[in-house]
Write a structure and sequence with these properties.
Pfam families: WG_beta_rep. This is WG containing repeat-containing protein. There is one protein chain. With about 525 residues, this protein is mainly β. It contains 1 helix and 54 strands. It has a 4-stranded antiparallel β-sheet with strand order 2-1-54-53, with no helix packed on it. Strands 3-4-5-6 form a 4-stranded antiparallel β-sheet, with no helix packed on it. A 4-stranded antiparallel β-sheet has the order 7-8-9-10, with no helix packed on it. It starts with a helix and ends in a 20-residue tail after the last strand.
């Protein structure tokens, strides 16, 4: 009896230790590296300053401010966080919790769309809508399509019929309901096209023969032999421009023709350019147009007019910077100013834009540097040169990367495998699979001897070496030992979370040597 009991206890301890050994121990420090608490989780995710998720075994929890389990999230993983909604995945599907902890949809849907206080969920072709203001879920039925527009309207389609189930007239049927990047839905009925605002009301009655969205709240249409440019408005839409002359809208360009000849370049609400002699207009970028003329001139047109006045002997003009525009003539590139005058004559295979009064040029196979007057700063010896920022450019030669100063000289004599900027002007460098850090002047702060570095703020760097992470300062001094599997920084709440393997206390059971029973025992 005693031996059997010992065996059972031993097996129980072995099972418990084996199970616990997979857990993780988390230590919580303040920003002064003072230990605040210890927690047992497999994983902790910081979704926002206020939303933290903990996972322990098969249990997923929304955590309180002191990182204790506050609300069970039922599922096995966070599928997506779309503030304020936490979408959670379980064996049967996706569900939703509000970040305050309220479960609003069970974990049984295939897809969930979110919009502030609304959730649209579906299983196959069946759809449900949750409205937090009413705290209820409504079954919308079997549909071919349903979506929430970017203004919060619900549009549904069944076959070829569209409707808006949350509008004041939910049974009204439309031939088309189409949302866009703007604030107004394009609607079509048998009488024509119109526009609907976020409340579901017409701000342009459905009487327009043809209508299509251009940009923002602007639309291009045709009605009763007139071409129309219309701007949506919450109360009543405005016709900003109308013409009996033909207006085309192709390849994101609107052009007006008078008596069959190209005369005007249009913008969303009117005329951008009115000029004679135009033969062709090409869109070369956002709010950027190359305009060709019959006299072989070419100009560059922007949102507010000419960026480069029409000029002769040029084949291409690109978007510029610092008052200079890359332009091509007879197969070579140089730079022109806004008046259409050559400032740097065409002589290069290719050029970049000017940045901090320096541009890169390509001669044959390699790149060099020039200043804004065309003076040579650096010969073409580089395979690549990235734009200057705060006095430095990143350049590549012989498959190695260097920092260049404004004199075109490398700051680091020994190249790196890669260099990339941090958001605060420092440089992360890689060499032989290891990572280091340079300061804003290109001086080595942390040698390239770490597997990963993450600079959280000045003198506070999360470093990884031999698979373990810690925190060091910019002098390489250890703030927190490199002894952890993972480190999470939550400066907003003054917390540093470190993850380590949980090593349980092993209790060894020793069976005493059996003794002979005494008489009468």
């Amino acid at each position: 009896m005693h031996k059997n009991f010992t065996l059972i206890v031993s097996l129980f301890l072995t099972f418990s230790i084996s199970k616990v050994a997979h857990s993780q121990s988390w230590e919580v420090y303040n920003t002064n590296i003072q230990l605040q608490s210890r927690l047992i989780y497999d994983n902790i995710d910081l979704l926002s300053e206020t939303v933290k998720i903990g996972k322990k075994g098969n249990e997923l929890s929304l955590l309180s401010t002191d990182l204790r389990p506050a609300v069970s999230l039922v599922g096995t993983e966070v599928y997506q966080y779309l503030e304020p909604w936490i979408l959670v995945k379980g064996p049967k599907g996706i569900g939703a919790f509000h970040e305050y902890g309220q479960q609003v949809l069970p974990l049984e849907y295939e897809k969930i769309q979110t919009y502030f206080n609304m959730l649209l969920a579906n299983k196959g072709n069946e759809y449900w809508l949750f409205e937090r203001g009413k705290n209820k879920t409504t079954y919308l039925g079997e549909l071919d399509e349903a979506k929430i527009t970017n203004t919060g309207l619900i549009i549904v389609r069944k076959g070829s019929e569209y409707s808006m189930p949350l509008s004041s007239n939910p049974d009204k049927v439309f031939d088309l309901l189409s949302d866009n990047e703007g604030e107004f839905v394009l609607a079509k009925e048998s009488s024509g096209f119109g526009l609907i605002n976020r409340e579901g009301n017409y701000v342009l009655e459905p009487i327009i023969q043809t209508l299509e969205h251009t940009h923002g709240n602007f639309f291009y249409g045709f009605n009763q032999d007139q071409y129309l440019l219309i701007e949506g408005n919450d109360i009543k839409s405005n016709i900003r421009y109308n013409s009996f002359h033909k207006i085309t809208f192709e390849n994101d360009i609107m052009l007006e023709y008078i008596h069959g000849k190209l005369r005007r370049v249009m913008e969303d609400d009117g005329i951008l350019l009115d000029d004679v002699g135009m033969t062709k207009v090409e869109k070369t970028g956002k709010d950027l147009y190359a305009v060709y003329f019959r006299d072989d001139k070419l100009g560059l047109l922007g949102k507010k007019g000419w960026l480069v006045q029409p000029m002769l002997d040029v084949e291409e003009i690109k978007r510029g910077s610092e008052g200079l525009f890359p332009a091509k003539s007879k197969g070579a590139y140089g730079f022109v100013n806004s008046k259409g005058t050559w400032v740097i004559k065409p002589q290069y295979v290719e050029t970049t834009l000017f940045s901090e009064n320096i541009a890169a040029y390509k001669s044959s196979l390699n790149w060099g540097l020039i200043n804004s007057t065309g003076e040579l700063i650096s010969d073409a010896v580089w395979e690549e040169i990235k734009p200057f920022q705060k006095g430095f450019a990143i350049a590549k030669a012989n498959s190695k990367y260097f920092l260049l100063n404004t004199f075109g000289s490398p700051v680091n004599t020994e190249g790196f495998d890669d260099i990339y900027r941090t958001s605060d002007g420092y440089f992360m460098v890689e060499k032989s699979g290891k990572t280091g850090l340079l300061d804003s002047e290109g001086t080595v702060v942390i040698p390239a001897e770490f597997e990963a570095l993450r600079r959280e703020r000045k003198n506070f760097i999360v470093a990884q070496k031999d698979g373990l992470s810690g925190i060091i300062d910019e002098a390489g001094e250890v703030i927190l030992p490199l002894a952890y599997e993972e480190i999470l920084i939550d400066f907003a709440n003054g917390q540093i979370l470190t993850k380590n393997k949980f090593v349980p206390t092993v209790i060894q059971t020793v069976e005493e040597t059996s003794k002979k029973n005494k008489k009468g025992a």
